[in-house]
Amino acid sequence: MSATYRALASVVMLIGFYVVALLQLAAVAALGVWLFSHTSGVITGKLLLPLVVALGAVGVGLWKAIRTKNEPAPGLILDERAAPWLWATVRELATAVGTRAPDEIRLVPEVNAAVGEQSRLLGLIGGRRTLYVGLPLLQAMRVDQLRSVLAHELGHYSGRHTRLGGVAYRGRLAIGETIERISPRNPIGWVFKQYAKLYLLVDNAASRRQELEADRASVQIAGHQAAASALRTLPALDAAWRFYETRYVDPGWSAGLAPDDFFGGFGHLLQARRDEIDELRENAPEGPASRWDTHPPIGARVAAMDQIPPVHVTPDDRPAWSMLADVVGAGRALQSLIVAHGSRRLLPWPEFIAESIAAGVQQRADGIYRAAGRFTGTPEPGLPTVLDLVRAGRLGEFAEQFFTNATRREAAAAFAGPMETLLDNAAVRSGRAYWQLSWSEPARLVGRSGEPWDLAEVAKLAVAPETLDEALARLAELGVDVRQSTVLQARASARNADLIAALANIKIDGREHDVYVLDNGLVLVPEPGKAHEGEKRLKEVLSATPVAEVASRNPFLPYEEIRSVEVTKRVPLKAVITLHDGRTVQVQELMASEFLEKHSRDTLLRVFEQINA
């Protein structure tokens, strides 16, 4: 019933969207006739042009929605040989829920499962069915939990949710394309945005009802315990996947490296941190219900499951990955199909971690060395440059910039932390130590034979003139050559930087630029384009290109090169940036400037305040 309701509501709302467009077209035509009879044709054209452009966007949105093909999402197609048990289970469950089995199963990299159908004639004629199963689910779940997930997805088929889902999808696409093409300043855009909100409210409500219907199939087939535990596992698994990407993959990825077994690494993490993941599952916070959600909160879904008559099902705690003939091979095949490595070097996990952490340590060391170079005037600074400051009793004076609220004596003592980073870097650069992979805890620095290395005590000795020689003697005993630790990147880059704001059509030294505000610098894109398309342009660039790549193609101004910022006017923003080398950069916001989000100017002002602090 919910499928019919959703499709009917989507069709009615979509028709209503274009009725609104026709009414506004009639209003624009009437306004045009009135203006033409009371003003000149030139004035009429100028006033009506934005409205006509907005209505033209409606036609473009509809055309794109009509032409969009309902193609399956990318994934590794699993045949009977690759997943005999999985295929047998899916067919069994399809029969149990009273529906036709999917025509293909695709392995995907998401922490999710889904179904799709390439139906025709607005869903009146069924089409090819595809079941998507996330490899992380197979790696993390028990067999009975995965059966509940599969029964839920097949329940969407038996409830005819996928048959007419294309109507809802095309409605969202048409409205989204229309809204995206209308300037925020166009009055017609406001009307369409309000209608789009109404459309989403209606469609999302129907989607939530469909999820509850599919949950019923899950409970009736797999039982309450398996269905509820699978639901509660999903947020914990999603958090584990984000942790895996952030802590293990991203550092090496941004350093030009890639693991040769991307998904296998996640499997190792799951095994090593199972207790932590179990704790996450048991203590997952229950998010509040929102009318904008496409799925009900997990707590509400579990509560609804409790109302379904109990069904006795024998638990099956075998690992779900055993449903594949070769889970490791499937993961590698999925990686070759889905993961775009580019020019990155593929490395086994131990070497990948060793090199990626070493690159991160070198990056932090380079920041310290560049500061030492500016402080001393040394063109090629390194660890000897910093140690010379220690011997001369000037470390506190240099370290003040890193510990702004400390006295010089306190700053010198606190520099033991950065000094440990420099010594770790020297140990690796000397070939005496490396970073050892661990799936259960952070990587640690070890010697050639795997013995732990901890240079924290040596670092404390190295920040005081009276104990510096003792520190150097200990390093020599370990075979660490301090001369090996030097700056590799003479100028800061946007690698590993995060975007915190963006402003379009800002004058930089008299020329218009788009300005991307990162957490370590400003990306200045010259001659970006039309002012009224600024916000749209910023979003398009960021959705298509990593911000580090944008920075590599355009001028990048690191904050560490800025000495001070004088803000002469906050709104519209006017400021003068003074660099350490004496050069200045003029910044001026225009009346036509646009922001990625409304607080972008405030974010940039806070950055300027922090630089001056």
UniProtKB/TrEMBL annotation:
Q: Which cofactor does it need?
A: Zn(2+)
* Annotated keywords: Cell membrane, Hydrolase, Membrane, Metal-binding, Metalloprotease, Protease, Transmembrane, Transmembrane helix, Zinc
Q: Which residues cross the membrane?
A: 12-35, 47-66
**CDD domains given in the database record:** M48_Ste24p_like
User: Does Hydrolase count among this protein's keywords?
Assistant: yes
One MF annotation (Gene Ontology) recorded for this entry: metalloendopeptidase activity
Q: What is this protein called?
A: M48 family metalloprotease
Write down the species: Micromonospora terminaliae
